Amino acid sequence: MNFELELKRGNFLLSECNHCKKIVWPPSEFCNQCLGKNSWRKCSNMGKILEFSKKENIYFCVAEIENSIKIIGEIVSGIPKIDQPIKIIDCGIVDNNYFFKIRVLD
Amino acid sequence: MPKVAIVGHGQTKFSKEDLKIESILLHATKNLFDSTSNLSQKDIDAVLVSTNNNSKYLSAVLSEMAGIQPKISHSIESLCNSGTNAIVAAYSYIVSGLAEVVLISGAERYDSPGQILEWDNLRGEFKHPIFWASIFSKSYKRKYSLSDEDLALVSVKNHKQSIHNPNAISQKAVSIKDVLNSKKLTDDLRLLDCSRPCTGGSSILLASENICSTFTDTPIWITGIGQKTTSASFTKNPSFDNMESTIQAAKSAFQMSKQKPSNVDVMEIHDAFSVCEPMALDSMGFSKQGGGIELVKEVYLTENSKINPRGGLIGSGHPLGATGIAQTIEITQQLHSQAGKRQVDHAKVGLVHNMSAAATSSTVLVLEK
Fold it and tell me: C-alpha angle with apex A41: A36 to A46, nearest 5 degrees?
C-alpha cells in the first residue's frame, strides 16, 4: 500500500511495526526502533490539540493523533483550546504538501 | 588529544545583494588571507564549504579560484547549523592527524533553498519556519506567562547591538512599539521577531597546536564541542517550550571544556526568532526554565552586550551556511578584545549556539583564550 497514493485519495494511513506494534512516524516502510517491516492501517483520525496559533483568519494547530504521532493541520471548524479533542475530517496532497483539515470536537 | 585553534578569519557584509555563491565564498576567503599573517595557499590541507546552495562541487571550485590544492575538499550541509558542523568536521580532521590547517568557508544567497525543509510533511501546509516559530512562541508564552512585548525585547536588544556590527544587514534601532507594530505574520509572530535570509559569507581558519604559531601569537582554542540531533521533523520535538537538542549539546560542550554556564563571558545564541533566544538560554543553563527573558532584560537594561554582541541573527541577518561561522568569528574577536564598540570587557570564555530546523539539531562550541 502506498501512503501518498492513499493520502491523495483522502485516506490517512499509519505505519505500524509488525514486531514492536509501535506506530512509526513519519510514515515509513521500516520501523525506526527495530528496523523490522511495517504494515499500513487506517488512522482513527482522532486526537487532541497540543498547541495552536492563527494566521489571518486561519487557526493552525499541532495535534496529537491516537496518543502517539503529531501533525500540523488547519482548523476548519471550531475554536481551539489546549487538550481539546479533534478529528481530522479531510487530508490529501496539494503541490507536494500534505494537508490535514481538522474539526474541533465539543 | 591535540589542541585545535582558530588562527584567522574573513567575512563579507550581509546584504540582499544578488551575488553568485562562488563569488561570496571567494570574497570571504580573500578577506581571510588578507588578514592572516604568513598564510600561503600551500599551507592549507583541507577546504570545507558550508552552504545550502544547490551548486555542486563548491569546495573544489573555491579551491581552484583561491589557488589551493587541498588534500581534502568537500561541502557540508545541515540547514542552519551547517557552519558549525563544518567547524566540527575541520576540528576532527585536525585531531585525527589527517590535516593540520583547514579553511572553512560558509556562504548563502538571500534565496537559499535551505529555508524550508520540504521533506517535513508532518508540518502539513505549514512548512515555512514562521509556523514552528509561532508554535514555540505561543507555547513558551503560555507556560511562563509572558507577553508579545516581553519577547519583543530580544529583537530590540539585537537590533541595537547590530548597529555596531559593520557586516550586519540591519543598522537601525527599533523600539518595542516598532516590533509590535511590524507586520503581523501570525497571532504570535511579528516581522521584526524574525531573522532575515540574506546574502553573505564567512571564512575561518583552524590549525593544530603544532603549527598555529605560524599564523598568530594569540590563538583562540576550541575547548568544547557538543552536538545533538533529536529528529528532522519539527513535531517530533518532545516539547515546544524548550530545546532538547540544545540541552544535550550544551551538556556535552561544557563537559568537554570543563567549563560551566557561569564561567561564560560572551555568547552567540541562534535567535532565528525572538523566542529562540530565551529558550536557548534556559536550555543551556544560563537561566532557570522560563527565566531567559529576565536575563535578556537584565543585560539590555545594564547595556551589557554579552548575549549576541554582533546583533544575533535578527540584527545581523541569517545567511544559513555562513551563520555558524560568523557567530564563531564574533566570539574569536571578543576573546581577542578586537570587537570595537561591541566589546565585552575581559572576555576569556565564549560560547556559540547554532541550531537547525526548529531545534531538531544543535551545535554548541566553547572557545577560550
Answer: 120
Q: Is B162 exposed, middle or buried (0-12, 13-18, 19+ CB in 10 A)?
A: buried
A57 interfaces chain B, CB cutoff of 8 Å:
no
Q: What is the ipTM of this complex?
A: 0.96
Beta strands in A1-106 (DSSP E): 13-17, 23-24, 38-42, 46-55, 58-65, 69-77, 85-94, 97-104
Range of the domain at B90: 4-114+197-214
The residue of chain B with its CA nearest to that of A94 is B125
Look at A70 and B236 and tell me if their CB atoms are within 8 Å: yes
**Total number of domains constituting chain B:** 1
> What totals of helices (H) and strands (E) does chain A contain, helices first?
1, 8
Residue B22 lies in a domain: yes
CB spacing of B138 vs A62 below 8 angstroms: no
pLDDT tens digits, B326-366: 999 999 999 999 999 999 999 999 999 999 999 999 999 99
Q: Is residue B231 one of the residues assigned to a domain?
A: no
Break chain A into its structural domains and give their ranges: 3-42, 46-104
Q: What digits encode the pLDDT tens for the residues B44-98?
A: 999 999 999 999 999 999 999 999 999 999 999 999 999 999 999 999 999 999 9
